Amino acid sequence: MKQKFISLALAVMLLLGVTGCAMSTPASVGSIGGVDIPAGIYLLAQYNAYNTASGAAKLATGETASNVKAVLKAECTGTINGEEVTTDGADYVARLTLRSLQYYAAVEKKFDELGGTLDEAATAEAAKTADTQWENNSDLYAANGISKATLEKYQLNSKKADACLKLIYGENGSSPVTEQEYADYINNDCDYLELVQLPLFDQSTYTFASDDQKAEIEALANQCRDDLAAATNESALYSAASYNTNDGGNSITDAVKAAGTGNWTVADLGMSYMIVRSLDPMEQGTVDDFVSRYNLLDAMKSDALQDEFYAEGAEMENNLSASVMKTYSASKIKKTVK
After folding, report:
1. Could you give the CA distance from residue 5 to residue 209 in angstroms, rounded to a whole number?
2. Which of 136, 127, 128, 45 is nearest to 94 (CA)?
3. DSSP state at residue 178
4. Given this model, what pLDDT does residue 291 score?
5. Contact between 194 and 279 (Cβ < 8 Å)
6. Complete DSSP assignment for 109-152
7. Buried b (16+ CB within 10 A) or exposed e, 276-299
8. pLDDT tens series, the chain, 338 aa
9. Rounded to the nearest 10 degrees, how much is the dihedral formed by the CA atoms of 260, 263, 266, 269?
10. How many CB atoms lie within 10 A of CB 131?
């Protein structure tokens, strides 16, 4: 009995010892520039980096993006920090992950320095986006240690970046864009277009126009161009242009520049014929009209601010824990859920 009692006591001691030494995953991987980097944000940044790396990886026949070990060993070529990089997948993922975290930290720090706050609309939109992401891919996110709360935190960071744009360059910002800067941008970097689009693709049947049909539509496009060119007043102009309208975007810039301001031309865009002309924007409205109608601030300054965040993040003191990041190694990424 005594021997059994001692054996039982020893078993209890061993059990207590195992319980006391149980490991838990760290909630943070450290900080960048004094900004805490939650483990979930790290895992999300790493997961996104892996997806980018898998597209840049030179994989052997039969290997796919879901083969994590293959991707991490494969040669990857792509652009990081504005430079073309060729390295193995594991290093590629690590570099992209760090760059993403540096950006995240720079946004958080700048937002706080500017005394920024998010309104209810911004926070609601961030939550809605996170909800959608979670609904579409919750199993895979969960398998990679990424929660819905992490997705929302990441979306809030994006909203903070948008807020910083206004806090710096907006009307009441620290370095507001001037009316002259807006005017220069409108005149030199924008095309103000009037256009008519004649599609070559039937969306109901998913079929392209035959050669004969395309010839007929091309003739109609040329007739429409001539009718528009001959229009002498606004009502005649819009009668001639009543076929169909759509935003042609930058793909027709060359065509309108070749035709000259105010002259109608026909552009073959593959999926459609577009009858289009450019107009002098300042004859169509004032600077205030364009600023209120279009998001010019984002078009003018968002890329520059993004570059600034990346640069500032890279200069911040890096206090990420190598041992913790090893705990969350990219080799543990899952691309399939059973």
Report:
1. 89
2. 45
3. P
4. 83
5. yes
6. HHHHHTT----HHHHHHHHHHHHHHHHHHHHHHHHTT--HHHHH
7. bbbeebeeeeebeebbeeeebbee
8. 444 444 444 444 444 444 444 345 789 999 999 999 999 999 999 999 999 999 999 999 999 999 999 999 999 999 998 899 999 999 999 999 999 999 999 999 999 999 999 999 999 999 999 999 999 999 999 999 999 999 999 999 999 999 999 999 999 999 999 999 998 988 888 777 888 888 888 878 878 888 898 899 899 889 888 888 887 555 444 444 433 333 444 457 788 888 888 889 988 888 888 888 888 877 777 888 888 888 889 989 999 999 999 999 999 999 999 999 999 999 999 999 87
9. 50
10. 14
d(CA 36, CA 42): 11
d(CA 240, CA 228): 6
306 sits in which H/E element:
helix 296-315
Residue whose structure tokens are 């924007």: 281
Outline where DSSP puts E strands in 168-241.
192-199, 201-202, 207-208
Q: Is 26 left (phi over 0), alpha (psi -120 to 50) or beta?
A: beta
Residue type, 149: A
Quick check: 46 and 93 in contact, CB under 8 A?
yes
Angle value at C-alpha 126, between 112 and 136, nearest 5 degrees: 140
Query: Tokens 């039937």 map to which residue?
Result: 202
pLDDT of 240 reads 44
CA distance 115 to 113: 5
How many CB atoms neighbour CB 113 within 10 A? 10
Task: Return the structure tokens found at 268.
Answer: 């073959």
Q: Which residues contact 283 (CB under 8 A, 6 or more apart)?
A: none
Q: Look at residue 40 and give its three-state secondary structure.
A: helix
